[in-house]
Design brief:
This protein has about 280 residues and is an all-alpha fold. It folds into two domains: about 140 residues, no CATH class; about 90 residues, no CATH class. It has twelve helices and two strands, in the order H-H-E-H-H-H-H-H-H-E-H-H-H-H.
Amino acid sequence: MTHTDKTLPRPHTWPAGVRVMLTAFVGMIGVGYLFAIANIYHQHQMADGEAGLSLNDLRAAYSGLTIRRTNETTIPSRMLTMLRTSMREYVDDDADFNVLESWLKAGGSEAGLTEGEKRRTPERVLILNCLRCHAEDSNTEISHKSPFGPDELTVDYSMIKEFVAVETSVNRDIVEVPPQLTIPRLVLVTHAHMLAIPVFTLIIGGLFAGARFPKRLQSWLTPLPMLALILDFSGWWLARSISGAVFVIAGAGAIFGLVFGLQIIVVVLDLWRSGPRSASSD
Protein backbone atom coordinates (compact mmCIF):
# COMPACT_ATOMS: atom_id res chain seq x y z
CA MET A 1 0.00 0.00 0.00
CA THR A 2 1.16 3.50 -0.70
CA HIS A 3 0.33 6.51 1.37
CA THR A 4 -0.31 9.83 -0.30
CA ASP A 5 0.42 12.90 1.82
CA LYS A 6 -2.45 15.30 1.50
CA THR A 7 -2.70 18.71 3.13
CA LEU A 8 -5.69 20.96 3.51
CA PRO A 9 -5.91 23.82 1.02
CA ARG A 10 -4.43 27.05 2.32
CA PRO A 11 -6.91 29.91 3.06
CA HIS A 12 -5.36 32.13 0.37
CA THR A 13 -6.28 29.52 -2.26
CA TRP A 14 -9.98 29.49 -1.33
CA PRO A 15 -12.62 31.13 -3.58
CA ALA A 16 -12.88 34.92 -3.43
CA GLY A 17 -16.34 34.81 -1.82
CA VAL A 18 -15.02 32.70 1.05
CA ARG A 19 -12.04 35.01 1.52
CA VAL A 20 -14.34 38.05 1.63
CA MET A 21 -16.42 36.35 4.32
CA LEU A 22 -13.32 35.43 6.33
CA THR A 23 -11.90 38.94 5.99
CA ALA A 24 -15.15 40.44 7.28
CA PHE A 25 -15.22 37.94 10.16
CA VAL A 26 -11.59 38.52 11.16
CA GLY A 27 -12.10 42.29 10.88
CA MET A 28 -15.10 42.20 13.21
CA ILE A 29 -13.18 40.08 15.69
CA GLY A 30 -10.31 42.58 15.62
CA VAL A 31 -12.55 45.61 16.12
CA GLY A 32 -14.52 43.77 18.78
CA TYR A 33 -11.33 43.03 20.69
CA LEU A 34 -10.37 46.72 20.59
CA PHE A 35 -13.75 47.55 22.14
CA ALA A 36 -13.10 44.84 24.74
CA ILE A 37 -9.82 46.55 25.68
CA ALA A 38 -11.64 49.90 25.94
CA ASN A 39 -14.25 48.27 28.17
CA ILE A 40 -11.54 46.81 30.44
CA TYR A 41 -9.98 50.26 30.74
CA HIS A 42 -13.24 52.01 31.63
CA GLN A 43 -14.36 49.24 33.99
CA HIS A 44 -11.15 49.08 36.03
CA GLN A 45 -9.23 52.35 35.59
CA MET A 46 -10.76 53.97 38.69
CA ALA A 47 -10.73 50.86 40.88
CA ASP A 48 -7.87 52.23 43.02
CA GLY A 49 -9.35 55.73 43.16
CA GLU A 50 -6.87 57.21 40.68
CA ALA A 51 -7.31 57.81 36.95
CA GLY A 52 -5.45 55.49 34.59
CA LEU A 53 -5.13 51.70 34.46
CA SER A 54 -2.40 50.25 36.66
CA LEU A 55 -1.49 47.13 38.61
CA ASN A 56 -3.23 48.65 41.64
CA ASP A 57 -6.49 48.65 39.67
CA LEU A 58 -6.05 44.92 39.02
CA ARG A 59 -5.26 44.35 42.69
CA ALA A 60 -8.36 46.31 43.74
CA ALA A 61 -10.53 44.29 41.36
CA TYR A 62 -9.19 40.76 41.88
CA SER A 63 -7.21 40.50 45.11
CA GLY A 64 -8.00 43.56 47.20
CA LEU A 65 -5.77 46.54 47.73
CA THR A 66 -3.80 47.79 50.72
CA ILE A 67 -2.21 51.20 50.26
CA ARG A 68 -0.81 53.91 52.49
CA ARG A 69 -3.04 56.97 52.64
CA THR A 70 -1.36 60.22 51.58
CA ASN A 71 -2.73 63.72 51.24
CA GLU A 72 -3.22 63.09 47.52
CA THR A 73 -4.73 59.61 47.81
CA THR A 74 -8.50 59.23 47.89
CA ILE A 75 -10.16 55.85 48.12
CA PRO A 76 -13.72 56.00 46.72
CA SER A 77 -16.69 54.72 48.67
CA ARG A 78 -18.09 51.31 47.89
CA MET A 79 -21.08 52.80 46.06
CA LEU A 80 -18.88 55.09 43.97
CA THR A 81 -16.59 52.21 43.03
CA MET A 82 -19.52 50.01 42.02
CA LEU A 83 -21.14 52.89 40.10
CA ARG A 84 -17.99 53.33 38.03
CA THR A 85 -17.53 49.62 37.37
CA SER A 86 -20.03 46.76 37.46
CA MET A 87 -23.12 48.93 38.14
CA ARG A 88 -22.38 51.51 35.40
CA GLU A 89 -24.58 49.70 32.89
CA TYR A 90 -27.64 50.13 35.12
CA VAL A 91 -27.48 53.94 35.02
CA ASP A 92 -28.29 54.53 31.35
CA ASP A 93 -28.57 58.32 31.38
CA ASP A 94 -25.17 60.07 31.46
CA ALA A 95 -26.70 63.08 33.24
CA ASP A 96 -28.03 60.80 35.99
CA PHE A 97 -24.62 59.15 36.26
CA ASN A 98 -22.88 62.54 36.61
CA VAL A 99 -25.31 63.66 39.33
CA LEU A 100 -24.81 60.50 41.37
CA GLU A 101 -21.05 60.41 40.84
CA SER A 102 -20.64 64.08 41.85
CA TRP A 103 -22.65 63.54 45.02
CA LEU A 104 -20.62 60.47 45.99
CA LYS A 105 -17.30 62.18 45.19
CA ALA A 106 -18.35 65.05 47.47
CA GLY A 107 -18.84 62.63 50.36
CA GLY A 108 -22.42 61.45 49.86
CA SER A 109 -23.94 63.63 52.58
CA GLU A 110 -27.54 63.24 53.69
CA ALA A 111 -28.26 66.90 52.93
CA GLY A 112 -26.90 66.57 49.39
CA LEU A 113 -29.17 63.62 48.68
CA THR A 114 -32.08 65.92 47.78
CA GLU A 115 -30.11 68.79 46.24
CA GLY A 116 -30.09 69.36 42.50
CA GLU A 117 -31.48 71.30 39.57
CA LYS A 118 -34.81 70.55 37.84
CA ARG A 119 -35.58 67.71 40.25
CA ARG A 120 -32.48 65.82 39.08
CA THR A 121 -31.19 64.89 42.51
CA PRO A 122 -29.12 61.94 43.76
CA GLU A 123 -32.26 60.64 45.49
CA ARG A 124 -34.25 60.70 42.24
CA VAL A 125 -31.40 58.96 40.37
CA LEU A 126 -31.30 56.19 42.99
CA ILE A 127 -35.07 55.74 42.80
CA LEU A 128 -35.13 55.55 39.00
CA ASN A 129 -32.05 53.39 38.51
CA CYS A 130 -31.28 51.42 41.67
CA LEU A 131 -34.30 50.72 43.85
CA ARG A 132 -35.89 48.20 41.52
CA CYS A 133 -33.19 45.80 42.74
CA HIS A 134 -31.97 47.38 46.00
CA ALA A 135 -35.39 47.96 47.65
CA GLU A 136 -36.00 45.58 50.55
CA ASP A 137 -39.44 44.58 49.33
CA SER A 138 -38.01 43.48 45.95
CA ASN A 139 -36.64 40.36 47.71
CA THR A 140 -33.66 40.17 45.37
CA GLU A 141 -30.33 38.84 46.58
CA ILE A 142 -28.74 42.27 46.28
CA SER A 143 -31.55 43.85 48.31
CA HIS A 144 -30.60 41.67 51.28
CA LYS A 145 -26.87 42.40 50.96
CA SER A 146 -27.11 46.09 50.03
CA PRO A 147 -30.55 47.58 50.79
CA PHE A 148 -31.10 51.22 49.82
CA GLY A 149 -34.66 51.60 51.12
CA PRO A 150 -37.78 49.75 52.26
CA ASP A 151 -39.57 50.02 48.90
CA GLU A 152 -38.97 51.18 45.33
CA LEU A 153 -40.02 54.78 46.07
CA THR A 154 -38.05 55.46 49.26
CA VAL A 155 -34.32 56.00 49.74
CA ASP A 156 -33.35 55.50 53.39
CA TYR A 157 -30.06 57.30 54.13
CA SER A 158 -29.48 55.21 57.24
CA MET A 159 -29.36 52.14 54.98
CA ILE A 160 -27.00 53.56 52.37
CA LYS A 161 -24.72 55.43 54.78
CA GLU A 162 -22.20 52.58 55.01
CA PHE A 163 -22.02 52.30 51.21
CA VAL A 164 -21.29 56.01 50.64
CA ALA A 165 -18.62 56.26 53.34
CA VAL A 166 -14.95 56.39 52.36
CA GLU A 167 -13.06 53.14 53.01
CA THR A 168 -11.11 53.24 56.28
CA SER A 169 -9.14 50.84 58.49
CA VAL A 170 -8.02 50.60 62.10
CA ASN A 171 -4.65 52.07 61.16
CA ARG A 172 -5.43 55.55 59.88
CA ASP A 173 -2.38 55.50 57.60
CA ILE A 174 -3.50 52.34 55.83
CA VAL A 175 -6.54 51.81 53.63
CA GLU A 176 -7.66 48.26 52.87
CA VAL A 177 -10.05 47.69 49.97
CA PRO A 178 -11.54 44.19 49.54
CA PRO A 179 -11.74 42.62 46.05
CA GLN A 180 -14.39 44.40 44.01
CA LEU A 181 -15.27 41.24 42.10
CA THR A 182 -17.27 39.13 44.53
CA ILE A 183 -17.24 35.34 44.13
CA PRO A 184 -20.69 35.24 42.42
CA ARG A 185 -19.62 38.04 40.05
CA LEU A 186 -16.31 36.30 39.32
CA VAL A 187 -18.13 33.05 38.57
CA LEU A 188 -20.37 34.90 36.10
CA VAL A 189 -17.49 36.71 34.41
CA THR A 190 -15.37 33.55 34.17
CA HIS A 191 -18.27 31.55 32.75
CA ALA A 192 -19.04 34.15 30.09
CA HIS A 193 -15.44 34.65 29.03
CA MET A 194 -14.40 30.99 29.00
CA LEU A 195 -17.28 30.03 26.72
CA ALA A 196 -16.72 32.85 24.23
CA ILE A 197 -13.10 34.01 23.89
CA PRO A 198 -11.46 30.57 23.30
CA VAL A 199 -13.84 29.96 20.37
CA PHE A 200 -12.71 32.89 18.21
CA THR A 201 -9.14 32.46 19.49
CA LEU A 202 -9.22 28.92 18.07
CA ILE A 203 -10.60 30.11 14.71
CA ILE A 204 -8.05 32.91 14.32
CA GLY A 205 -5.26 30.55 15.42
CA GLY A 206 -6.34 27.94 12.89
CA LEU A 207 -6.35 30.50 10.06
CA PHE A 208 -2.96 31.79 11.20
CA ALA A 209 -1.55 28.23 11.17
CA GLY A 210 -2.56 27.97 7.50
CA ALA A 211 -1.14 31.35 6.50
CA ARG A 212 2.17 31.89 4.71
CA PHE A 213 4.52 32.80 7.53
CA PRO A 214 7.99 31.59 8.65
CA LYS A 215 7.17 28.09 9.85
CA ARG A 216 9.38 27.90 12.93
CA LEU A 217 8.08 31.20 14.28
CA GLN A 218 4.56 30.22 13.28
CA SER A 219 4.73 27.01 15.33
CA TRP A 220 5.61 29.05 18.43
CA LEU A 221 3.08 31.83 17.93
CA THR A 222 0.04 29.72 17.01
CA PRO A 223 -0.73 28.34 20.51
CA LEU A 224 0.39 31.40 22.52
CA PRO A 225 -2.98 33.24 22.71
CA MET A 226 -4.79 30.12 23.92
CA LEU A 227 -2.12 29.40 26.54
CA ALA A 228 -2.27 33.06 27.63
CA LEU A 229 -6.02 32.71 28.16
CA ILE A 230 -5.48 29.77 30.51
CA LEU A 231 -3.02 31.82 32.56
CA ASP A 232 -5.31 34.88 32.53
CA PHE A 233 -8.41 32.99 33.71
CA SER A 234 -6.37 31.16 36.36
CA GLY A 235 -4.90 34.45 37.57
CA TRP A 236 -8.36 35.86 38.29
CA TRP A 237 -8.92 33.16 40.91
CA LEU A 238 -5.37 32.80 42.19
CA ALA A 239 -5.23 36.54 42.91
CA ARG A 240 -7.78 36.13 45.71
CA SER A 241 -5.19 34.27 47.79
CA ILE A 242 -1.90 35.16 46.04
CA SER A 243 -1.56 38.89 45.40
CA GLY A 244 1.33 38.34 43.01
CA ALA A 245 -1.06 36.67 40.58
CA VAL A 246 -1.97 40.13 39.27
CA PHE A 247 1.35 40.00 37.41
CA VAL A 248 0.12 36.81 35.73
CA ILE A 249 -3.12 38.59 34.74
CA ALA A 250 -1.24 41.61 33.35
CA GLY A 251 1.42 39.53 31.58
CA ALA A 252 -1.00 37.03 30.08
CA GLY A 253 -3.27 39.84 28.89
CA ALA A 254 -0.36 41.62 27.20
CA ILE A 255 0.85 38.44 25.48
CA PHE A 256 -2.64 37.60 24.28
CA GLY A 257 -3.25 41.09 22.90
CA LEU A 258 0.08 41.37 21.06
CA VAL A 259 0.12 37.88 19.52
CA PHE A 260 -3.61 37.81 18.77
CA GLY A 261 -3.30 41.18 17.03
CA LEU A 262 -0.35 39.91 14.98
CA GLN A 263 -2.29 36.79 13.98
CA ILE A 264 -5.22 38.89 12.77
CA ILE A 265 -2.96 41.11 10.65
CA VAL A 266 -1.11 38.14 9.14
CA VAL A 267 -4.36 36.30 8.32
CA VAL A 268 -5.95 39.29 6.56
CA LEU A 269 -2.81 40.08 4.55
CA ASP A 270 -2.32 36.43 3.60
CA LEU A 271 -5.89 36.04 2.38
CA TRP A 272 -5.27 38.64 -0.33
CA ARG A 273 -1.54 38.30 -0.97
CA SER A 274 -0.94 36.74 -4.35
CA GLY A 275 1.78 34.28 -5.31
CA PRO A 276 2.81 30.78 -4.19
CA ARG A 277 3.85 29.83 -0.69
CA SER A 278 7.34 31.22 -0.24
CA ALA A 279 10.39 29.11 0.56
CA SER A 280 11.00 31.13 3.73
CA SER A 281 7.71 29.83 5.08
CA ASP A 282 9.09 26.32 5.16
